[in-house]
Amino acid sequence: MNHTPQPALVGFADIRTQAIDGWQQYDLHGRQFLDLAERAHRGENSLFTAEILYNLIAMAIEKLVMARLMAIGRLPYNHTMHDLVAALEEWLPETVRGMAEPIRGLDTYQDICDPYACTIRAPTSEEIASMLILARKLEERLDTAACGEA
């Protein structure tokens, strides 16, 4: 009988990652969404409702987070704020330390996954202002992570 030791199985930690093409476009789009939301909120374009501003901020956060995750070769399981935060907590935990719950809280304004039971709650102007501050703080932390991780 051959008692040769069996090779160890490969685990997820053994997988070598590489940047996913196109992450720079996600980053650019995220910044553009956030800039537009800020300008619109300051009153430069009154056509933007609170719901539209919320969606611009949510898209900005999604694009910025996806860009950073793609740059390090990682992806979230889905694109809700909960999923994006979970991926950041796993792969870039410093970027969301102390901010995870407020980011997850953005999911409470719009749940459109089930078209028969969707809920949309319009944020107030003050809530939009807080979302913009949160998004800029996250953007800054993701930029810092870019220096250390990419």
Give an overview in words:
This protein has a two-stranded antiparallel sheet. The model has no long low-confidence stretch (mean pLDDT 90). 57% of the residues lie in helices and 3% in strands. With 150 residues, the chain is mostly helical. The radius of gyration is 19 Å and the shape is elongated. Helix 1 packs antiparallel against helix 2, helix 2 runs parallel beside helix 3 and helix 2 packs parallel to helix 5. It is built from five helices and two strands, in the order H-H-H-H-E-E-H.
Give the secondary structure arrangement, pairings included.
Layout: H1 23-44, H2 50-71, H3 81-91, H4 100-105, E1 110-111, E2 119-120, H5 125-149
- What does the radius of gyration come to? 19 Å
- The number of E-state strands comes to 2
- Give me the number of helical elements: 5
Instruction: Work out the helicity level.
Output: 55-70%
Overall, the morphology is: elongated
H and E order: HHHHEEH
Low-confidence stretches: none
Report the portion of residues in β strands. Answer: under 5%
What's the end-to-end separation, in Å?
Answer: 49 Å
What characteristics describe this protein?
single chain, two-stranded antiparallel sheet, 150 residues, mainly alpha
